[in-house]
Amino acid sequence: xxxxxxxxxxxxxxxxxxxxxxxxxxxxxxxxxxxxxxxxxxxxxxxxxxxxxxxxxxxxxxxxxxxxxxxxxxxxxxxxxxxxxxxxxxxxxxxxxxxxxxxxxxxxxxxxxxxxxxxxxxxxxxxxxxxxxxxxxxxxxxxxxxxxxxxxxxxxxxxxxxxxxxxxxxxxxxxxxxxxxxxxxxxxxxxxxxx
Length: 195
Hints:
Number of helices: 10
Strand content: under 5%
Structural class: mainly alpha
Radius of gyration: 18 Å
Distance between the termini: 58 Å
Number of strands: 0
Shape: globular
Order of helices and strands: HHHHHHHHHH
């Protein structure tokens, strides 16, 4: 671990630590008890990337993209669609935050992390597209878990609706299908308790 000439490693890590305390906005807006943090979300995404069996993808790069993709939220917070902030403005804020964050690191690390973030934002590689689908898949998996924890099957349907048609990777399609099958059984059991 090397820091920039200004000894920026500690400030960098402390800023990153904020991700542990930034709740995912979508869950807050839906009054989920004890909503996950941004770092919780990124950790499971990284693990999802680690367990992919797609040999055509650079797994290491996917893990790195997952770890970096929401880093800017330690400064700008988790900006959700309901916040009515344009995609351009969201990108501008996150880009400024990534520049601020990476300025604390050595030139090599600054370049590496910033370029990973740009790759994810630009969706220009197979790995970035895969990780974007992981992002959405992890969200609906989390929604399913919250519905189970709260015993409210189907309550978070809008999160599922927001991902309709966005999954194309075979592994992710299979996982989403499994989530939906188990979830739909729970919804049906609640709707028809004596079936």
